[in-house]
Amino acid sequence: MAYVSIADRDHEIEHHDPQTFITKYIWSQDHKVIAIQYGLTAIFVGLIALALSVMMRLQLGFPDSFSFITPESYYQFVTMHGMIMVIYLLTALFLGGFGNYLIPLMCGSRDMVFPYMNMLSYWVYLLSVIILLISFFVPGGATGAGWTLYPPQAIAPGTPGIELGIILMLASLAVFIVAFTMGGLNYVTTVLQARCRGMTLMRLPLSVWGIFMATILGLLAFPALLVSAIMMLLDKTILTSFFMPAMISAGEQLSHTGGSPVLFQHLFWFFGHPEVYIVALPAFGIVSDILSTHARKNIFGYRMMVWAILAIGGLSFIVWAHHMYVSGMNPYFGFFFATTTLIIAVPTALKVYNWVLTLWQGNIHLRVPMLFAIGFIFTFIHGGLTGIFLGNVVVDLPLSDTYFVVAHFHMVMGVSPVLVVFGAIYHWFPKMTGKMYNETLGKWHFWMTFFGTYSIYLPMHYLGFLGVPRRYFSMGTTDFMPESAHTLNTSITISAIFVAVTQLIFLYNMIVSLRSGKKSDPNPWGAATLEWQTPDNPPKHGNWGHHLPEVHRWAYDYSVPGYPDDFIPQNVPASAEAPAGRDHGIHH
Amino acid sequence: MTITLIFLACIMVTVIGWLLRQTLNTQPWVSNEIDDAVSGKSLDTNSKAVGLATFLAVATSLFGLFISAYTLRMKMPDWNPLAEPDLLWINTGALVLASIAFQWTRGAAVKNNDNSVRIGLAISGALSVLFLGGQLLAWYQLQAVGDTMARNPANAFFYLLTAVHGLHMLGGLWVWARSAIKVWTGAPSEAVRVSVELCTVYWHFLLLVWAILFGMLLST
Question: Do the chains contact at A224 and B29, CB–CB below 8 Å?
């Protein structure tokens, strides 16, 4: 074979060390550098989206007090906040960031199997982000169609940003999908083909399982978004009628003929629902590893966890229409989708039980990553339970257009994955940078974020029950909304500003620790997975020095009876255990 | 959406079924020498082949979704079936021959027959370019009789589907061009064997997709 990918090579790795600053940090093909590029870009746009949410909350908490928030700009903030958070922050950060960083290290590979394509993936992602950000500055501004971009209003007169904003949004999504596909092909192929000796699929840490399955979902689901983006782009630019019905707008007949807006909704949610799990599955995996490591106990029900990931992945493709109960559908369809939605709660609940049972009688160390992981269990249970409400057609119909839905999806796929992002950054920061952060600040960051987000979203459920409608720029005066609802809105806004400001602690901690943090131990948490066993800290290009590791055990040998340390790294042979004759049955 | 679901169900059943077989009857918490000896490759093939197979799954999902959208949109009352130009039959013939030529080139590459690989790549490339040229010509023919994209959703789908299929072929031609330039400038066929093998698979896939799309366009 003429071509041997870098991941298959064992020796002569030093010759590949890039020498100049540009090849090392800019045009880098090292998965770790690409991961950090992805991560920093995603966090950067995430901060913009955070600022946008504060602007929205300012209007909702103190209506008509700020002249720079017009109804148009409000809808632009809503749209861009949602789109950036879901796609450009969470998807990019979990898969492009953590996927890139963790897959080769946890699998014991030197790099991704197609490093050049991996580099390209980041630069194309950056291009999509730039296109997205440009849309803020074009005439008419960014699109204000809502993050779901439903036609006809997404491109019909009256919606902000129907000139260039929507075109740039759709183009940016298409470019993002190209970037994701290039990255995704790498992640799948690397997990399948470039693991080190002894690393069976069932010895992989759950982080890799979660990222792997999420990537498969992404690869199969993002085409649906691509299809809808292309077709809407054509409806907008050359006036086809894929989605646009014949309609009269402001007294004028538009040139579109009988297109189907519901077709768009099907395509969008065919992507949109798996997208929830594209974000959730990596979070599930990472949380499992953080909990196990910091509770010094093997993960409870490893195989069941893997099967649950597979089941959730498969089921996530047949629940999409539960986002469309209010669009009108055959009642039998509604029944079908309500049933599948409730079924998907079973493997998800299994995972929650297993996390809790992992903590049970563990030797829990409440370090910063662990706090975030346990916080995730709380927020995820809350968000998940309200999901069961909304999965039922009859409950969904009255609640669908209220703040209850906003509260639900922010708990389940806003706060929960973001807590995992923070937990993961705190967990792997010593490995990525070789430095330790300030743990006290990290704990402050956790508690303020955790209570702050609860004080935002718990009251929102109540507003939803009152019938306070979401999507409205201004509530006006209505009989069904008591004065207390307005007061509550003000309080939510104050909490939101509090949480946003709290994130400065995180940024400060990361930046200062990077510059002057104390040197970290190569394996500060005593973790068993491979990334903590690298010869250098942080690992160099090629990861493993001269020899690839060999794996002799699963990723969760914590507190093994009779062994002097409370963890055994995956690359320690069975013969090296002291004393011999360990009873494997005890810990499972 | 049923069509996409069937496509995806097949893909997911394969993927999940295969993964389940890796995970049943294992006790990962028990260390054993059989597992220790497992190489890090799940599939006994080139990594590029796995990459291509994954990409084909993505492309299948994409085309499946387009077909689903087509069948859903077709039911709306303003749908006016398009009379496809007969030229498409000739284009289809060119694509079939390109696929056969690739298969032949692949055989030559496996046997390390340098000369045949050079000729085979030239023929398969020429036929593919012919196919793309023919598709463009079909567009011009439609434009000439006033069947523009915005005129009717059936037209719009025709242009869209042929364009997306053509773009996929352009991607394939990029890989083809790299291999062709290599062997034409004197590299042995061994240097491009993997690429030729993967191109062959990819061209068969493009033919299959085109056959399905063409059949659907003709019958509706």
Answer: no
Residue type, B42: S
| Three-state SS at A252 | strand
Q: pLDDT tens digits for B162-201?
A: 999 999 999 999 999 999 999 999 889 899 999 999 999 9
Please give, rounded to a whole number of angstroms, the shortest distance from the CA of A310 to a CA of chain B: 6
Q: Do B73 and A259 touch (CB under 8 A)?
A: yes
Distance from CA of A251 to the nearest CA of B (A): 22
Element holding A340 (H helix, E strand): helix A331-359
For residue A327, give every residue at least 6 positions away whose Cβ sits within 8 Å of its Cβ, in sequence order, or none.
Answer: A262, A265
pLDDT for the residue A15: 47
pLDDT of residue A576: 67
CA distance A82 to chain B (A): 24
Domain residue extents for chain B: 2-219
ipTM value: 0.95
- B26 in contact with chain A, both atoms CB, cutoff 8 A: yes
Two tokens at A221? 């689901």
User: Taking the CB of residue A2, how many other CB atoms lie within 10 A of it?
Assistant: 12
Q: Residue A502: how many CA atoms within 13 Å on its side-chain side?
A: 20
H helix intervals, A84-205: 100-107, 115-134, 165-193
Alpha-carbon distance of A397 to A189, in angstroms, equals 43
Residues with Cβ < 8 Å from B215, sequence gap 6 or more?
none
Instruction: Check whether A569 has a pLDDT greater than 50.
Output: yes
Asked if residue A16 has pLDDT above 60, the reply is no
Distances from the Cα of A274 to the Cα of A209, A278, A280, A281, A313, angstroms: 16, 6, 10, 10, 8
**A111-123 confidence digits (pLDDT tens):** 999 999 999 999 9
- The encoded tokens of residue A98 equal 């953590």
Closest partner CB to B153 (pick from A5, A189, A241): A241
Q: Are A182 and A124 in contact (CB under 8 A)?
A: yes
Task: Please write the tens of the pLDDT for every residue from A460-506.
Answer: 999 999 999 999 998 877 888 888 999 999 999 999 999 999 999 99
Chain B nearest-CA distance from A476, in A, is 40
- List Cβ<8 Å contacts ≥24 apart for A504-507: A505/A441, A505/A444, A505/A445, A505/A448, A506/A422, A506/A445
**B190 near A CB under 8 A:** yes
pLDDT at A17: 59
Decide the pairing of beta strands A248-249 and A252-253.
antiparallel
Asked whether the beta carbons of residue B23 and residue A588 sit closer than 8 angstroms, the reply is no
Residue from the list B12, B22, B39 with its beta carbon closest to the beta carbon of A317: B12
Superfamily of domain B2-219: Cytochrome c oxidase, subunit III, four-helix bundle (1.20.120.80)
Cβ neighbours of residue A394 closer than 8 Å, sequence gap 6 or more: none
**What DSSP assignment string belongs to B22-85?**
HHTT--TTS--HHHHT--S-SSSS-HHHHHHHHHHHHHHHHHHHHHHHHHHHHTSTT-------
Q: Cβ(A106)–Cβ(A529) under 8 Å?
A: yes
Q: Which positions 122-151 of B are in contact with A (Cβ < 8 Å)? A: 149-150
d(CA A87, CA B141): 41
Q: Which residues contact A467 (CB under 8 A, 6 or more apart)?
A: A398, A402, A480, A481
Tokens 């069932």 found at = A202
Instruction: Indicate the pTM of the whole model.
Output: 0.94
Q: How far apart are CA A311 and CA A308, in angstroms?
A: 5
Contact A393, A340 (CB under 8 A): no
pLDDT in tens, A174-212: 999 999 999 999 999 999 999 999 999 999 999 999 999
The DSSP-derived string for A315-335 is HGGG-GGGG-GGG---HHHHH
- Is pLDDT at A432 greater than 50 in this prediction? yes
